[in-house]
Amino acid sequence: MFNSPFWQAVGDLPSITLLFLLLALIVAFGFEFINGFHDTANAVTTVIYTNSLKPMTAVLFSGFCNFLGVLLGGTAVAFSIVNLLPVDVLIDESSGKALVMVISLLLAGVIWNLATWSIGLPVSSSHTLIGSILGVGLANSLLTKGNLSGVNWSKSVDVGLSLLISPVIGFALSFMTLLAMKFLIRDEKLFTPPEGHHKPPGWIRRILIATCGAVSFAHGSNDGQKGMGLILLVLIGFMPAYYALDLNNPGKAIDVKAGAEFILQNLPKHHFDQNPRLKTELDQIAAQLANKSNFSEIPENQRWILRQSIFESRQIIQKLNLEPELTSRLSGPLRNFSQALEYVPFWVVIGVALALGIGTTIGYERIVITIAEKIGKTHLTYGQGASAELVAALTIAAADLLHMPVSTTQVLSSGIAGTMVANKSGVQPATLKRIGLAWLLTLPASVSLAAGLFFIGHLIV
What SS3 class is residue 262? Predict the structure, then answer.
């Protein structure tokens, strides 16, 4: 364990840098812990308010499903987060400024999440994290270059659209799902508020518990990957030589070199003529990896350069208008390129899973009350709970497949509002205004907070 790249890199760090690294990792895992109790209410609200499970049983079950979601959910969404901030910005800047960038975005996310949780406001941790990353990127580029180049704008637009569209999908699909249930299932018990502590019929109770588990698993998968991306930003910022490439898997270097040579031999010449940079980058990859079987054999000061060559080559090829047959033939080399760059150390996966799972069991009551009692004018019904959670689970799972981050809070809150409208239960305008205002303010607030913290830290450093 202590021979891993992480511990080797830690041993090489100056004492003050090591202190800041430990602080950054504590805050990053803390963000995931807060995310657990901030967002878990979305999964447990329906089973608690429909008397399907007791509160403690519900949160323990949800916490376990969150843990499994992180472990089994993959890593693609993590790199949607990493790529919001061009990570070469962290490498090109002085180490002091890189530390300030990382710690500023972490603190901004934690402060906003805690502030909104303290007043029981269900805001999006995804919005908060993304706003914090954008804030430090924009502040840094304004201070150093006088422009807005410190953000990957194409990736930001994709992420922004996913966050914008997902609540609309949650509202519309939950509305339609409840109407379909009312048409197909003629049982008024499903669509009237439960009385006292009576449990729902067995079959609907099983559905409610299953959808609670599904939302929790999906939340762990999607939001857990955001936490992984956050910690990777920390690791890349502090130890780029060890996290530029996957040093843990011998043979990856051979695969990448073979892939570069395959592309050079099989891509038609006119593509190289139109993109001369592509040939330069591929040649550099092949030359740097000659007679190398592991990325660890590359000198530390050359690893980031190699990473950028692999990254740029992949980006250029993905934008080419290739024939389907050639696209298929190049899929293997491009997959090898991605695997060399986009990996998450197993200790990070376990750490995020534990932080999110444990956080799930704490502090959920404030958000639960807002979602269950203050969105609609009547008590949540069995049918509404099942509809909203089923839609939320499917929406988040679809986002995982598309490698896009979405907000569990937004999807489920809008889904419950949709079921209230479909059930003619009415909604509470004051609460919806507060949630809508928080949704509108979260991005600019977290951008401003992160940028302000970075500016203050920049003056100090």
Answer: helix
List, in order, residues 6 or more apart from 1 with CB less than 8 Å away: 7
**Is 374 strand, coil or helix?**
coil
Q: 453 and 89 in contact (C-beta within 8 Å)?
A: no
Closest CA to 144 of 95, 98, 93: 93
- Answer for the pair 451, 112: CB distance below 8 angstroms, yes or no: no
d(CA 229, CA 348) in angstroms, rounded, equals 10
- Cα 282 to Cα 274: distance, rounded to the nearest angstrom: 15
C-alpha pair distances (Å), 418 with each of 128, 168, 387: 24, 9, 10
Low pLDDT (below 70) residues in the chain: 1-9, 11, 38-41, 82-98, 120-122, 149-152, 155, 196-197, 363-378, 426, 431-432, 435, 461
Q: Which residues share a beta bridge with 376?
A: 427
CB 411 within 8 A of CB 167: yes
Residue 94, pLDDT score: 47
- List the alpha helices (DSSP H) in 239-323: 240-243, 252-266, 269-274, 276-288, 300-319
pTM for the model stands at 0.75
Residue 454's nearest CA partner among 106, 40, 158 is: 106
* Distance in Å from the first CA to the final CA of the chain: 34
Span 380-437, pLDDT tens digits: 778 888 888 888 888 888 887 777 777 777 787 788 888 888 877 767 777 667 767 7
